[in-house]
């Protein structure tokens, strides 16, 4: 069984279009302009990010591939029942998870894979790819487009099977501390006592390595795609030629922060908002942040938000960790 579904938000929730518009309006109205990186991820943005993850200097992806490959047996040992749900938040193209899927199938495990992503194109392509390569296997896949927690609610509402939830990559690292805490508390409420969460953390390392990972032509193209999206979605007239991207490591926040700099004084009109936004020459607009954790900070984050740590899975250089958590009893 291979299928895709678009999740319907509740009546109290923003529509995706409304949420996009309100987020842009709020971020560009700040004295220090700032837009969250999730705005970049339409189908084209997801494709650009996939290319970034294939770069040798982008360490999180390379390290996590190594972890998943070397620790797939450790991960499979988390499964205690006859059947389980493999749920992936922010699945993208599922390239790392496909290693686990192959391993689980080889071990004759009975599971249903639920990839969840905000990009319908990413989910459609992932499900199609798995269908093409696994038509003769017992693999069941239901791809969900929409909000992570709506997806979790849909999966677990009438299902008592054990859940293995994957939150791979650095999405959690991109959240500020308040947002990360709120996200983890919501996630804890969505999980049962037998469920596991496998989540990724980029560990603090040489700042020179961090700098090279976030400053290249593809990363600039990825960040500038944000302006394309605002033009397309909201009828804005951003000119990408008038902006340049630069990533900086901030030792005070211990985050790599990415900015788009306006190269001249300019005004941008956004038709859907019926507003003009003014940029001074060399004014910075933050588009991304990626916090780098110590193990102690990561463990504190887990404990303070209702989780207990089962084990840490490292790459060979300990640049990255996929940590296995359970809801604390």
List the keywords:
alpha/beta, Rossmann fold, 8-stranded mixed β-sheet, 11 helices, 27% strand, globular
Characterise the protein shown here.
This protein has 11 helices and 13 strands. It has 2 domains: 15-39 and 207-291, no CATH class; 51-206 and 292-327, 3-Layer(aba) Sandwich (Rossmann fold), CATH 3.40.50. The chain is globular. It has helices at 16-28, 43-53, 59-70, 72-76, 97-106, 120-133, 148-156, 177-190, 207-213, 217-234, 295-304, and strands at 2-6, 83-89, 110-117, 140-145, 162-167, 196-202, 243-250, 255-262, 266-270, 275-279, 284-291, 307-314, 320-327. It has 329 residues and is of the alpha/beta class. The strands form 3 sheets. It has an 8-stranded mixed beta sheet, sandwiched between helices. Strands 7-8-11 form a 3-stranded antiparallel beta sheet. It has a two-stranded antiparallel sheet with strand order 9-10.
